[in-house]
Design brief:
Structural class: alpha+beta
Distance between the termini: 40 Å
Number of helices: 7
Largest sheet: 9 strands, antiparallel
Length: about 325
């Protein structure tokens, strides 16, 4: 049972006592409020539960599980039933516990209005979306035309046309972005497939990985010890420094960042397309209908950038 009682200590700044049932023993806390309704509630460990507590509320518990730095608490009642207890450390080094609900979590990361300003001065932008992307960005708020193709790397990409006597006869893959949810990122870190994906992206002039969540969420993974994912991620970032991994708080912000990154890459690509074509041995005619269908494979007669091979075809497809 989840229990709320009054703190018998009149001098305490935390007037409530909280008893949270856990498998290895109840968690006893002093709390500033009975529930995180408007803001996160600061809590402090309680040494001992009173012999005769002044109980004000007792609620059955549907689930109470510790996952990393967080305890997920679900009460058996229709309202105010979901919350989290977050264990953290303050700047002064002192440990602290904060109790939050979905409402207060949203208030700590408020909704951001995405601007409508066109990216890098481009009136329009064509973004290629990988045909294996199951839930792609639509770029509905941006001046974007999307086309589905089988990309050699990344989930979203832009091409630049070469300058010369026959403009449009050749095209170079200017930039690509790989999209990751937090769960997808975690699984790819653990099974090693992210390394192959970064190796493919590193073969391009401009590339990035965008994550639709906070970096801090890697600490509260359900099945991995805190810090393990951070070490794996840091190792890959050192190994592939040319491919930034950007964490955005929401899917809409990740979509906006992808749009602006690709637009900026295209707007600054005129001086580097010739270098890309020279380094890859030139390109053939634009033939978007002719594809080999796999990451790391060639795409008909169109330009093929150097990749690491096709060893990550299966893992990339299965992670979507």
């Amino acid at each position: 049972m989840f229990v709320i009682a009054r703190n018998p200590d009149p001098e305490s700044a935390l007037p409530w006592l909280v008893r949270v049932p856990l498998v290895n023993g109840d968690l006893l806390l002093k709390a500033r409020d009975r529930w995180p309704r408007t803001s996160r509630v600061y809590c402090h460990p309680l040494d001992e539960w009173p012999d005769e507590p002044d109980v004000v509320e007792t609620v059955p518990v549907r689930s109470c599980v510790r996952r990393g730095i967080a305890i997920d608490l679900v009460l058996d009642r229709p309202r105010e039933n979901r919350s989290q207890l977050i264990f953290t450390r303050l700047r002064n080094g002192r440990e602290a516990i904060f109790w939050q609900s979905p409402r207060t979590a949203r208030s700590s990361r408020p909704a951001v209005r995405v601007p409508s300003r066109k990216a890098s001065g481009l009136e329009s932008l064509t973004i290629l979306v990988d045909s294996r992307e199951r839930y792609p960005y639509r770029f509905a708020r941006q001046r974007v035309v999307t086309k589905r193709e089988t990309l050699t790397a990344g989930d979203y990409a832009v091409y630049g046309e070469s300058a010369g006597p026959h403009p449009g006869s050749c095209r170079a893959l200017v930039a690509a972005v790989e999209r990751k949810s937090l769960d997808d990122l975690s699984s790819c870190l653990v099974d090693g497939t992210l390394s192959f994906q970064l190796a493919e992206l590193a073969g391009m002039e401009r590339s990035a990985v965008v994550v639709e969540d906070r970096y801090s969420k890697l600490l509260s993974h359900a099945h991995v010890a805190p810090g393990f994912l951070l070490d794996l991620l840091a190792t890959l970032q050192v190994r592939y420094p040319s491919v930034p991994i950007v964490f955005l708080e929401t899917r809409s912000l990740a979509e906006e960042w992808t749009y602006r990154f690709l637009a900026a890459a295209l707007a600054n690509s005129d001086s580097m397309i010739g270098d890309v074509l020279a380094r890859t041995g030139g390109g053939g005619h634009d033939d978007p209908g002719s594809t080999a269908g796999g990451r790391g494979g060639s795409k008909g007669n169109s330009l093929t950038l150097p990749m690491t091979g096709s060893s990550s075809v299966t893992s990339t497809t299965s992670s979507r």
